[in-house]
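for the writeup, i need someone to sanity check this before i put it in the appendix. the sequnce is what the collaborator sent (i think, or maybe the updated version? ugh). structure was predicted straight from it, no edits. if anything looks off just tell me and ill rerun, i have time this weekend
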Amino acid sequence: MKPCPFCAEEIQDAAIKCRHCGSMLGETAAAAVASRPLASATEAAPAVVTIFKGTPSWKAQFWSVVAAIVLGVGGLCGAPILHLSFGVVWGWALIAGAVALGLGGCWLLYLWAARATLRFLITTRAIDVESGLLSKNIETLQLWRVRDTEFHQTMTDRLLGVSRIRVFSHDVTTPQLLLWGLPGSRSIFEQLQDALEIARRSRNVIGLVE
């Protein structure tokens, strides 16, 4: 006979289940006990929610886009103006116009590439910044490492409905992160603030300062 480890009642030495309290004994009991914390941890783990996913809006580059278009149009119209109004030889006028048109086109292409090759993924757990055209680079910032955030809109941003969020973190490799070209609503910023609070509480970093 031996005492039950759960209720202390006397049971047979070969028993695998206590007839008094119904508890499982031996390896079966150990397996059951080991499985319970895992199940509860899975149930307690919050689901990861996507706050924003996408590329920056071209509206965040509005004035640069306008300047590039003006430069290109100036190249198209500049050649006859230089020739007729200033007496510049047609050949040189055409070269000057072609250079301006090329610069404007290259500028527009650069602005498009800077936006199209950048992708933001903001979730309730982390911020992922994916960049690259032929190659790919993904930089991840865990929310619990963030120490402060800043919501910013210029007058043009407000008129066009875009915004930018600057993130300050304790991460050595990413002390600052700029999320630009986001929708102008404060909804994304407020959701990010709530997610930061939850992430800090889960890591016990409330009130942590540098």
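The domain at 50-55+118-203 is CATH 2.30.29.30 (PH-domain like). The first strand starts at residue 2 and ends at 3.
thx in advance!!
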